[in-house]
Amino acid sequence: MQNNSSPLLTSILDNDFYKFTMQQGVIQLFPRAKVRYKFINRGQHSFPAEFAAALRKTVDEMKGLQLSPQEKIFLRDTCPYLDPVYLDFLEGYRYQPDEVQISQEGDQLELHIEGLWYRTILWEVPLMSLISELFYIMTDSERISDDEVISTTREKIENYKKLGVTIAEFGTRRRYSYAIHQLVLDSLGKYGAGSFIGTSNVHLAMLHRTRPIGTHAHEWFMFHAARYGFKMANALGLEHWVQIYRGDLGIALSDTYTSDVFFRQFDKMFSKLFDGVRHDSGDPLLFADKVIAHYLSMGIDPKSKTIIFSDALNYEKVARIAGYCKNRIGISFGIGTNLTNDAGPAPMNMVIKMTEAQPQDQEWIEVIKLSDEHAKYTGTEKMIHLGKTILGIV
After folding, report:
1. Which of 6, 113, 152, 162 has its CA 20 to 30 A from that of 36?
2. Which element (helix H / strand E) includes 105?
3. What is 146-340's CATH number, 3.30.565.10, 3.40.980.10, 3.20.140.10, 3.40.30.10?
């Protein structure tokens, strides 16, 4: 029976789907690898006194979470590409709170995660959702009413339906609260038929009888750079993904080391094997042009492929992208914070990113991300310069 000891997290599946799909890959390919993650306060938010203590208490309570029989059946029946062995592993998985170090100096929060990658990979998303929800609770933020959340979400999804586009909800990590997230999913399911296609949150996908959506994240390729070098990171990251999923979960993330570098390695085999790519940084219209030109150069009809746009989207951005791409290439949209944290107070701007990896009982190696948008770079200046030099990024 599921343990409900945590007041803010009540399911081990209250997490993004790509964390579980990557976890299965890590278990199979890199079971001894260790990693470190770090909280990055991009928005320079000031945390209230005792915030670290409150977060520590909630994180400690997560050790009681476990996969319920009903959740295991849901994964088995909905996601046939998740092996029975992996589902048995997940059934026995428990969070180990000592993998997370939390401290506070004045109004600034410090958070670090360290441990075996196959274990620590599940921490990022729930930790961010906890930080966000606790922040609003402890700063006494006032939000709009439940009825306003419902009507706002209804208006958004009905506008997307008029555009004729499909929408997935990607807003777990920076949601206002679990309760708001539930209201948003209720409204999307009720009013979004024909447009709403699923959510990245596995727990809520089960509760709302919709599809869990996701493939892999930047950390997949960041680790591959530590293990195999920058020049091989994209190609081997993709090759290993195909090795694990054999054609399922075929949307490739393209901007870990800039999309220009990615498409140099996204050869004809990968271009045909993968259903499409995900856009997460930089100008979306320029990216669309780049993707279409790439497929045409491979002799592939772009209309047979899909771009998933997922970078800080709202209605205006979606409408602009949809109009630009119409009849040129398949498109869909993953919308996060604009759906799950449009409740009054300003959303938080924060991330938790992998900072180092220890691939094979060797020394720790710094990892970086070189998005198409410089503000989203992560890593030390020294390693960023080295990566850009090796990859020929100007």
Report:
1. 6
2. strand 100-105
3. 3.20.140.10
